[in-house]
Large ribosomal subunit protein uL22c (Uncaria rhynchophylla), 155 residues
Amino acid sequence: MLKKKKTEIYALAQHISMSADKARRIIDQIRGHSYEETLMILELMPYRACYPIFKLVYSAAANASSNMGSNEANLLISKAEVNKGTTIKKFKPRARGRSYPIKRPTCHITIVMKDISLDDECVEINSLKNPKWKNNHKAMVYHDMYSSGGVWDKK
């Protein structure tokens, strides 16, 4: 019986203290990129959500090098997802003895990296970068109906 060698490794961060939408904004930028490109992108982006994602990508690469012995130059982010976590609820005292609820959202981030040197089949990197939900429609060109030589040119 032939065993298929595992080519994917993942890292998971739970209960990160930020909104899932803010983390998704960053994850959408790095999905499908190589490991070195991802680190450069995350270092240069000005968002607070970049630091925990940077640490998670670094951890996934360390998992890949220690568990599979793969080189960091061959790593590619094949899957990255952000899920909503629990909401921390506190009450803040306000005027006239009232209380005001404070909600701190959390999120769970999963990053799956693939070693392209161990993969038998060729992976098209552009298919991972471009989301499938985007429609690549061409812009419609409206011709000027007054100068088209049609009915409107007659006087």
Notes: The longest strand covers residues 75-93. The chain has a mean pLDDT of 83. The CA atoms of residues 20 and 142 lie 41 Å apart. The radius of gyration is 24 Å.
